[in-house]
TrEMBL record:
It comes from the Bacteria. Keywords: Sigma factor, Transcription, Transcription regulation. Belongs to the sigma-70 factor family. ECF subfamily. Residues 1-12 have a biased composition (Gly residues). Residues 55-114 form the RNA polymerase sigma-70 region domain. Signal peptide: none annotated. Pfam families: DUF6596 (PF20239), Sigma70_r2 (PF04542), Sigma70_r4_2 (PF08281). PANTHER family: BLL6612 PROTEIN, BLL6612 PROTEIN-RELATED. Residues 1-39 are annotated as: Disordered. It comes from Actinacidiphila polyblastidii. This is DUF6596 domain-containing protein.
C-alpha cells in the first residue's frame, strides 16, 4: 500500500504506487559528422527537443516578445530539423541550429506583417547585415553561445514560467499554459491530469496566449516585489510537472525522469530565488524525497514495483538527505507547513521507515487529516483512506472510499476503483474486487500501471 496521490488529483507524486494501494555541415557553419543514419539522426532531433524545448521556446519568447509566435517558429525549426538532419547529419550545435532557424522564421513573419515594422528592424539588426538581406534562403548564422546562461538564476525557463503564471490569467489557464509551453505536454496529457475535456484545455491555452499578448506582459523574470503574487501559480505548475514526470498519466513509461528532474531543477532555482518561502522549500523537499525512490520504482522491464515490494537499498540516500534538509528549512520558517510541506512530511515518513509495515502510519493519517484541512480535495481523502487501511484495517477505509463513490467526486479517475478493489480483496470479496480493478484498468491511461491492475485482477480467486 502506497503513501498517496497528493492533493490535486492530477497525476500527483506517488500515484503509481497507489494503484496497488500497497558529415554534413550544420546551419551554423560548423562541421557536423558524416551523413548519419536517418533513424539515429531523428533520435537526436527528438532527444534535443525533449530536453531543450522549454529553453528554446523561452529564449524565442524573450527574443520576439510573442509567446504564440515563439512556439510556432520553434515547431517550424523542429520540422525542418526532422527533414535535414537525417539527410545531412546532425549539426555540431543542435540547439544553436534550432534557435537560428527559428529566429529566421520569426523575421519572415515580421517581414510579412510589415517591411518597416520596428520589431522586424530590431530583430534583423541582430543578424549579420548581409544575411539579413539574403532572407530565409541563407543558412542560419553561426551560434557560438546559447541565448541563456545556465548559471544565472533568472534563466529563460523560469522567466517563462512567471510569464505564464501572470495574475491576468486564471489559475487553470496558468497551469495549462505553462505545462504546454514549459513542460511540452500535449493537450491530451494535461486534460487527463485535470480530468477535464481536451477542448477545454485547448481553449484555456489559446485564451491565455491572447490575454498575455493583449496585456503586454514582458518576457522577463519579474522584479522581486512582484514575485509573491505569482509564486503560488508557479509552485502549482512545478508540482504538476513533477507529478507527470513521477507517474506519467499516459504512454508506455511509468516514470518520465527528464520531466521530473527538470521540475526539481526549477524548484531548486526557485528556492535560491525565494529562500525565505517555506512552501518553496516544502515543494523542493517533496520532489527530492519522491524522486529518491525512482531507482526502485520500476523493474528491469520497466514494470511498476509497488512500495511494499521495493528494495529500499536502491533508494537515493543523497536525495533523501537533500529532501529532509529542505523540509527542515520549511519548518524553521515558523509559519507552519503548507500543502507542499505536509506532503513532504508524509514522504519523509516513508523515506525514514525501514519497511512498509514499520512505517508510522498513525502519523501519516494525522498528516493527511491536516492536509485535508489546508487543501481539501477528494484525492487527499482517498489517500487518507489508504493510510487508515494500513493503520486500522481495510473495513474503516472502505467506508471512507464508499463515501467518495457516493459523492461522485472522483468520477473518471482510475485511482478510486483501484483503491476500492484492493480494499475489497483484503476483505475477502474477490468478485467485487476484480470488477473494481478491471474498471480501474479501463480508466488508467498509463500502459504500465494498467498491466499491473490487470494482473492483480487476474490473480484474484
Amino acid at each position: 500500500m502506497a503513501e498517496g496521490a497528493g492533493p490535486g488529483g492530477a497525476g500527483e507524486a506517488g500515484t503509481a504506487e497507489d494503484a496497488g494501494v500497497a558529415g554534413g555541415t550544420d546551419a551554423a557553419g560548423e562541421a557536423g559528422g558524416p551523413a548519419a543514419d536517418p533513424g539515429a539522426a531523428r533520435g537526436v532531433v527528438e532527444a534535443v527537443w525533449r530536453i531543450e524545448s522549454a529553453r528554446i521556446v523561452g529564449a524565442l519568447a524573450r527574443y520576439t516578445g510573442d509567446l504564440e509566435l515563439a512556439e510556432d517558429v520553434a515547431q517550424e525549426a523542429l520540422a525542418e530539423a526532422l527533414v535535414s538532419w537525417p539527410r545531412d547529419g546532425a549539426p555540431a550545435s543542435p540547439v544553436g541550429w534550432l534557435l537560428a532557424t527559428a529566429r529566421r522564421r520569426a523575421i519572415d513573419v515580421f517581414r510579412r506583417r510589415s517591411a518597416l515594422d520596428a520589431r522586424y528592424t530590431l530583430l534583423a539588426g541582430r543578424l549579420a547585415e548581409g544575411e539579413a538581406a539574403a532572407g530565409a534562403a541563407a543558412p542560419p548564422e553561426r551560434t557560438d553561445d546559447l541565448p541563456w546562461d545556465p548559471d544565472r538564476v533568472d534563466d529563460d525557463v523560469l522567466a517563462l514560467m512567471f510569464v505564464a503564471c501572470h495574475p491576468v490569467l486564471s489559475p487553470e489557464a496558468r497551469v495549462a499554459l505553462t505545462l504546454r509551453a514549459v513542460a511540452g505536454l500535449a493537450s491530451e496529457q494535461i486534460a487527463r491530469a485535470f480530468l477535464v475535456p481536451v477542448p477545454t484545455v485547448q481553449a484555456r491555452i489559446t485564451r491565455a496566449k491572447k490575454t498575455i499578448a493583449a496585456a503586454g506582459v514582458p518576457f522577463e523574470l519579474p522584479p522581486a516585489r512582484e514575485r509573491p503574487a505569482r509564486l503560488g501559480g508557479v509552485l502549482s505548475v512545478l508540482y504538476v510537472i513533477f507529478s507527470e514526470g513521477s507517474t506519467a498519466t499516459s504512454g508506455a513509461d511509468l516514470v518520465r525522469p527528464d520531466l521530473a528532474y527538470e521540475a526539481i531543477r526549477l524548484a531548486r532555482t526557485l528556492a535560491a530565488l525565494q529562500p525565505g518561502e517555506p512552501e518553496v522549500c516544502g515543494l523542493l523537499a517533496l520532489c527530492e524525497l519522491t524522486a529518491a525512490r525512482f531507482p526502485a520504482r520500476t523493474g528491469p522491464g520497466g514494470d511498476p514495483v509497488l512500495l511494499e515490494d521495493q528494495d529500499r537499498r536502491q533508494w537515493d540516500r543523497t536525495a533523501i538527505r537533500r529532501g529532509l534538509a529542505a523540509l527542515g528549512r520549511a519548518a524553521a520558517a515558523g509559519r507552519g507547513l503548507g500543502p507542499y510541506g505536509l506532503q513532504a512530511a508524509i514522504a519523509a515518513c516513508h523515506a525514514s521507515a525501514p519497511s512498509v509495515r514499520e512505517t508510522d502510519w498513525e502519523r501519516v493519517v494525522l498528516l493527511y487529516e491536516a492536509l485535508g484541512r489546508v487543501a481539501p480535495s477528494p484525492v487527499v481523502e482517498l489517500n487518507r483512506a489508504v493510510a487508515v487501511a494500513m493503520a486500522h484495517g481495510p473495513r474503516q477505509a472502505l467506508e471512507m472510499v464508499d463515501d467518495l463513490v457516493a459523492t461522485d467526486r472522483l468520477s473518471g479517475s482510475y485511482l478510486l476503483p483501484s483503491v476500492r478493489g484492493e480494499l475489497l480483496a483484503r476483505l475477502g470479496r474477490p468478485a467485487e474486487a476484480r470488477a473494481e480493478l478491471e474498471l480501474a484498468a479501463r480508466l488508467c491511461g498509463n500502459a504500465r500501471e494498467r498491466s499491473v491492475l490487470l494482473r492483480k485482477a487476474a490473480a484474484l480467486p
